């Protein structure tokens, strides 16, 4: 019987794919068996999803076949859904089989957090996957197609986006760019279209300097976005949303971007969680289980001031690299490396030719920030797929 350790990676998002690629690079032949489990046979770039959702880009530019990113002679790709994680048995139950492991990497990605708001899970759409953004795009186009065929059509042209964080603002920006094209295509007066961005917190884009937040909101207001900041959605209904102020916005389209929690299977596996996320140790281990690593949206990592880092793509990538290093170190009985987050800056797109960025103490706005966003995206493509992937998927103009 083989004594080669078995490594199982659950999820091929930012953290999972970087873990797999680094293990592939660092492990010697026959030093370990590595299996990557993913629901789809492609990796998708979550930070791009707002564009195909609005219809300003093709969904094909958002995904990459996993077979193009890994060496399948070194890593076994299993296309399946995870049903259960049995830590006491060191087994993962899939929809069509079972995998045993010596080392487990949980990078399953997050789920939408509704904060208990009635009706959100029933009537709002979310930007979480390739299939979900396809649905949003088709739904938006369908509202324009229906508009002139109804007696009371105004709600068809009202679009509500819940949440003014990163995802909400970037989606609103793309939607504001797309809607004039749809108006022209369907012979609709642009003055009849309304985009509402609703945020319960007292500011949009938390974490950005007030100067950049103000700039972003000014840009989007000029594009026709109406902001309702410091106003909570109290309920989502088949007819739109009810706000905490008592106001009702009738809308056939509600897109929720207001929060992410960890995967429900983390809690089901018996881990202690906060909103589905596990507080990992300094080496990214699950508490008391040095053979289990938890990454990305499922991991709770605190900054030196004692506040949790937001679960961004940037931190997930760095966790994947650190996790791979530590697994190799464990196999070779070497010292693991502590995870230290290196914030390289933050960039948000505001649609075509516009953006905001904070890099160190520099605040960047407008066209320069938009170009920086493209460079950040191309850097990621280069990291996972080299120059060929940059040439295929990169945006140069």
Please compute the radius of gyration using only Cα atoms: 22 Å
Number of H/I helices: 9
Classify the oligomer. Answer: single chain
Structural class: alpha/beta
Name the poorly predicted regions: none
Number of strands: 26
Indicate the mean pLDDT: 95
Spatial separation of the terminal alpha carbons: 56 Å
Shape annotation: globular
Strand content: 25-35%
Strand order of the largest sheet: 5-2-1-9-22-21
Write structural notes for this entry.
With 397 residues, the protein is α/β, with parallel strands linked by helices. It has helices at residues 14-26, 50-54, 120-123, 130-147, 166-186, 210-222, 264-268, 313-331, 366-393, and strands at residues 6-10, 33-38, 42-44, 63-65, 75-79, 82-86, 91-94, 97-100, 103-106, 111-112, 125-126, 158-162, 194-199, 225-229, 233-237, 240-243, 248-250, 253-256, 260-261, 278-279, 285-286, 289-294, 299-300, 346-349, 355-359, 362-365. The protein has a 6-stranded mixed sheet, covered by helices on one side. A 5-stranded parallel sheet has the order 11-18-12-13-14. Strands 6-7-8 form a 3-stranded antiparallel sheet. The relative contact order is 0.14. It comes from Paenibacillus mangrovi. One of its GO terms (molecular function) is NAD(P)H dehydrogenase (quinone) activity. Keywords: FAD, Flavoprotein, Oxidoreductase. Pfam families: Pyr_redox_2 (PF07992).
SSE topology:
Layout: E1 6-10, H1 14-26, E2 33-38, E3 42-44, H2 50-54, E4 63-65, E5 75-79, E6 82-86, E7 91-94, E8 97-100, E9 103-106, E10 111-112, H3 120-123, E11 125-126, H4 130-147, E12 158-162, H5 166-186, E13 194-199, H6 210-222, E14 225-229, E15 233-237, E16 240-243, E17 248-250, E18 253-256, E19 260-261, H7 264-268, E20 278-279, E21 285-286, E22 289-294, E23 299-300, H8 313-331, E24 346-349, E25 355-359, E26 362-365, H9 366-393
Parallel strand pairs: 1-2, 1-9, 2-5, 9-22, 11-18, 12-13, 12-18, 13-14, 20-23
Antiparallel strand pairs: 3-4, 6-7, 7-8, 10-19, 15-16, 16-17, 21-22, 24-25, 25-26
Helix pairs in contact: 1-8
């Amino acid at each position: 019987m083989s004594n080669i350790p078995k490594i199982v990676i659950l999820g091929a998002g930012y953290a999972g794919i970087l873990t797999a690629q680094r293990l592939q690079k660092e492990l010697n032949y026959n030093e370990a068996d590595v299996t990557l489990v993913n629901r789809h046979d492609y990796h998708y770039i979550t930070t791009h999803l707002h564009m195909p959702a609005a219809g300003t880009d093709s969904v094909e530019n958002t995904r990459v076949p996993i077979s193009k990113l890994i060496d399948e002679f070194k890593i076994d790709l299993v296309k399946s859904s995870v049903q259960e994680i049995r830590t006491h048995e060191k087994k993962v139950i899939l929809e069509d089989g079972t995998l045993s492991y010596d080392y487990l990497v949980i990078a399953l990605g997050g789920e939408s957090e509704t904060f208990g708001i009635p009706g959100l899970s029933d009537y709002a759409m979310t930007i979480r996957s390739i299939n979900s953004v396809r649905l949003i795009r088709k739904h938006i186009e369908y509202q324009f197609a229906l508009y002139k065929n109804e007696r009371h059509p105004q709600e068809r042209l009202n679009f509500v986006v819940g949440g003014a964080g990163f995802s909400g603002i970037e989606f609103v920006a793309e939607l504001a760019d797309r809607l004039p094209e749809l108006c022209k295509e369907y012979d609709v007066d642009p003055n009849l279209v309304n985009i509402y961005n609703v945020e319960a917190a007292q500011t949009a884009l938390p974490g950005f300097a007030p100067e950049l937040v103000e700039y972003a909101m000014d840009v989007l207001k000029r594009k026709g976005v109406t902001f309702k900041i410091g106003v909570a959605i109290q309920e989502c209904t088949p007819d739109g949303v009810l706000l905490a102020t008592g106001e009702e916005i009738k809308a056939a389209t509600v897109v929720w971007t207001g929060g992410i929690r960890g995967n429900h299977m983390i809690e089901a596996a018996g881990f202690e969680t906060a909103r589905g996320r596990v507080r990992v140790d300094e080496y990214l281990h699950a508490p008391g289980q040095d053979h289990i690593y938890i990454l990305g949206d499922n991991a709770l990592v605190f900054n030196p001031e004692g506040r949790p880092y937001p679960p961004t793509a940037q931190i997930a990538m760095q966790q994947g690299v650190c996790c791979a290093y530590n697994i190799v170190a464990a196999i070779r009985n070497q010292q693991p490396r502590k995870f230290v987050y290196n914030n390289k800056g933050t960039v948000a797109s505001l649609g075509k030719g516009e953006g905001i960025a904070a890099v160190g103490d520099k605040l960047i706005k407008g066209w320069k920030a938009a170009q920086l966003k493209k460079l950040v995206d191309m850097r990621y493509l280069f990291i996972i797929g080299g120059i060929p992937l940059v040439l295929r998927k990169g945006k140069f103009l």
